[in-house]
Write a structure and sequence with these properties.
It is a single chain. By secondary structure, this protein is of the alpha/beta class. It contains 13 helices and 19 strands. The chain has helices at residues 19-35, 55-58, 62-79, 152-160, 177-195, 245-252, 265-268, 299-313, 336-339, 350-359, 376-384, 425-435, 459-475; strands spanning 5-11, 40-42, 82-91, 94-103, 109-113, 134-135, 140-143, 165-170, 198-203, 206-207, 213-214, 218-221, 227-231, 237-243, 286-291, 317-322, 362-368, 407-414, 442-447. The strands form four sheets. It has a six-stranded mixed β-sheet. Strands 6-7-8-9-12-13 form a six-stranded mixed β-sheet, covered by helices on one side. Strands 16-15-17-18-19 form a five-stranded parallel β-sheet, sandwiched between helices. Helix 1 packs parallel to helix 3 and helix 8 (299-313) packs parallel to helix 13 (459-475). It is elongated.
Length: 476
């Protein structure tokens, strides 16, 4: 950061889909920021399009996007200020992105797309895949949108790439302005202090036509984690603060206060260096997840990840195997597992999977439906589970070598929307796995999922995956 900068943080309303009215609102605040001699003006999340969970209500076509950019380029040049403006941007044929645009006085632009969508947003918007920072003439800035700021790694990455000021525009409904500021202090102060950066936040304000009410709020924190100023305007307002170079250097020139140079990234990205030392008296639940699809980011993989992540948050250990990446044979019908060994005789990649299932409490099997059946990858595993049966399994009332009480979660997706089609798959395998001692077996099924990301918009199915994880973990 080369010079002191005056920042204007605007908390204003935004009508859903009323782009022309919202443009006029923003221009009015830009003029007020110019009167305050601001260098950078930050507007709330989706301040141009308004906030809605119905993308069609806030969609801005590429042609209108270009027109809007021209308007704000001219305004930035006329006022000599950098503008940070938010709206919902279009993606080619896909779900839209919640984005924030940086517009410099020279007419240059950069875009940040929200990387961490809130749970209600995931079904209707596409998350960004990049973590950019924007180098301006006098400072390097970063942007995170609302829910993003709860993930500390984002700020660490941006700071490592030279960020001086982090802007966090919000569209966060409910509560009061002061309540919102108090909430921000719990995590935004840590982002500033840990990374030696300024953090600036502002929220939408007012009630929109979807019935959501946004409390006006703005806040500025210096690189030492101290509050510069805050405001809770009702209904609208602008907080003007100065980001001073001296405040930045006071931290970064102090080796005991500037932590970034002492980071050890060789530890953070190396899973071999990371382990859990279990000193508890109670074992955590062990979950083995098998992905049967050749698509690593397909529909069943998405549902399996939602189940597993929910289970992890509840304290479970999860091991995932992508069967398509393993090399193994199908069952050879040699009967060695019944005559000489208590396990499968084959020594290949599936050996580790079969052993993991022996130790697991919950088995998750996720597969798309191919030709009315699970994939060949999954079927190959199922055939090899024959080794779990004792030699006298046909007459023994306890035919399984596995400990009883395991639970099965069967995840299926199919392009066919008719639920009656392929409804026989789960009952068939449920029958066999009950032989192995599996109990409380569950089905999570997505019908009509043609594309690899279709299931993400099936809210009920996604919620069922998460709820099933909570129920099974808690019941144990």
């Amino acid at each position: 950061m080369k010079k002191d900068l005056r920042i204007a943080l605007v908390s204003c309303s935004a009508e859903v889909g009323a782009v022309d009215a919202n443009v006029r609102t923003l221009i009015r605040w830009i003029d007020r920021a110019k009167e305050a001699c601001a260098d950078i003006v930050c507007f709330p999340e989706v301040s141009l399009s308004g906030y809605s969970l119905r993308p069609e209500a806030v969609r801005i076509t590429p042609k209108i996007e270009d027109t809007i950019l021209d308007i704000f380029r001219r305004k930035a040049q006329h006022c000599g200020m950098t503008l940070l403006v938010g709206w919902v941007t279009s993606n080619d044929g896909e779900k839209h992105s919640i984005s924030h645009v940086v517009i410099t006085p020279q007419g240059k632009t950069g875009v940040y797309r929200k990387t961490h969508l809130g749970p209600p947003e995931r079904a209707v918007y596409t998350a960004g895949e990049d973590v950019p920072v924007f180098r301006l003439d006098h400072a390097t800035i970063g942007i995170q949108l609302c829910y993003d700021a709860h993930f500390p790694q984002l700020t660490t990455i941006m700071a490592a790439n030279g960020m001086d000021i982090l802007f966090v525009p919000h569209a966060s409904p409910h509560g009061s302005g002061q309540g919102k500021i108090d909430s921000w202090k719990r995590h935004l102060v840590a982002r500033a202090y840990d990374n030696a950066v300024f953090v600036m936040a502002c929220n939408l304000s007012g009630t929109n036509d979807t019935g959501l009410t946004f409390p006006g709020a703005a806040l500025a924190i210096d690189p030492s984690g101290q509050m510069i100023d805050s405001a809770a305007p009702n209904p609208e307002g602008m907080l003007v603060v100065d980001a001073r170079v001296s405040a930045l250097l006071a931290v970064r020139n102090n080796p005991m206060r500037y932590f970034a140079p002492n980071r050890r990234p060789e530890l953070y990205g190396n899973e071999a260096k990371q382990r859990v030392v279990d000193l508890s008296t109670e074992e955590s639940m062990k979950i083995v997840c098998l992905l049967g699809s050749p698509r690593p980011k397909g529909n069943t993989a998405f549902l399996a990840e939602r189940f597993c992540e929910t289970a992890r948050q509840a304290g479970s250990e999860v091991v995932t195997f992508s069967l398509n990446k393993l090399t193994y044979k199908g069952c050879q019908g040699c009967m060695t597992c019944k005559t000489k060994l208590d396990r499968c005789v084959l020594k290949d990649d599936l050996e580790q999977v079969l052993d993991a299932v022996r130790d697991a409490d919950i088995l998750v099997m996720a597969s798309p439906v191919y030709y009315g059946e699970v994939t060949s990858q999954m079927k190959g595993f199922i055939d090899r589970t024959f080794s779990y049966l004792k030699p006298d399994y046909t007459t023994n009332p306890e035919p399984s070598r596995l400990k009883p009480g395991k639970k099965l979660v069967f995840i299926l997706s199919q392009a066919q929307p008719d639920e009656k089609q392929f409804a026989d798959i789960f009952p068939r395998y449920d029958y066999f796995f009950k032989w192995y001692g599996f109990q409380d077996n569950r089905l999570i099924r997505a019908c009509g999922a043609m594309g690899p990301k279709d299931v993400a918009s099936m809210t009920a199915v996604v919620e069922k995956a998460e709820q099933t994880a909570r129920e099974l973990v808690q019941s144990s």
